[in-house]
Predict the 3D structure of the following.
Amino acid sequence: MKLENGSELTGAQIGYQTYGALSDKRDNVIWVFHALTANAAPDEWWPGLFGPGKLLDPERYFIVCANMLGSCYGSTNAHSINPETQGPYGKDFPLITIRDMVKANQYLQRHLDLKHIQFGIGGSMGGQQLLEWAVMDPDLFNNICVLATNAKHSPWGIAFNEAQRMAIEVDPTLYTDAENAGAAGLAAARAVAMLSYRNYRTYHNTQQEDTDGTLTHFKSATYQQYQGQKLVNRFEVLSYLSLSRAMDSHNLGRGRGGIKQALEKITAKTLVIGIHSDVLFPVEEQAKLALHIPQAQLELIDSTYGHDGFLIEFAEISRLAQPFLDGTVAIDKKRKYRLREQAKNGFGFRPIDALPGTERL
């Protein structure tokens, strides 16, 4: 497999899961794209969207989810065997980009003999992959839904990722044969990431102390430690480094004349969902997607959970996405016009202090 940076990955493997059955016409395919540290089992991390009678219904649809290249849940990653050395790749694992991940998905698509996909859905890094694929192969998808994502990873997002990598790389056990090598660094990185996934309001509402006499062991401090250890228990530190660098590489406009020209290639009817309180992928980024994708509709969700709202606000996501999945949506051109007018004013959306829950202060 030829990678975007010019190197090659020999014998690459893609872990994936499918649910349900293909219809006789092979026209009931849903492709789900997972985010940074998730896996190919959306029933585990999107339980409110997955299941009989829900948006992702395996009794009605043939649902595919691939583990992204570089991840540790079944696809080739830094712990895989390098055929040239007969040992794990380790720190020599090549740079993987979002486009490389989509290229791997295309191998899987051909393996499953899927010529057409009714509906694609993904949030955050999953949304980045879905957008990239919709640009690379505009005729593949009928309808898509991208949540809390962007057309190019921002300097702000890259800075958060670099801060996490810095935390990992100061762990002296990284790249050693020590048991749980890099675990302390990974835990610290996850604690940094949580600050971008949530926001001030989330912590105020969920981690407030029960008494005024606390001097140490604050709830928010132990919560950070808990989240760090939780990721250590289920994820590989070298995959975290690889995938965060891949996210940094995301740029739909690279080699295509710019972002606007790339987005204009997308022909699928597109639902773009943003979250008002998202400080990592602010709603301005989703507005720009909807502005330049020809058949796009922008919807914004109120949630105190910030970026993680795309993993939590099941009812609202289902309500908004169902017409796109059913193919019954009609894009409102007047809303598109209003979006252009908003763009002139820098997308003046509501600040976080206007969210529900402010009165609790």
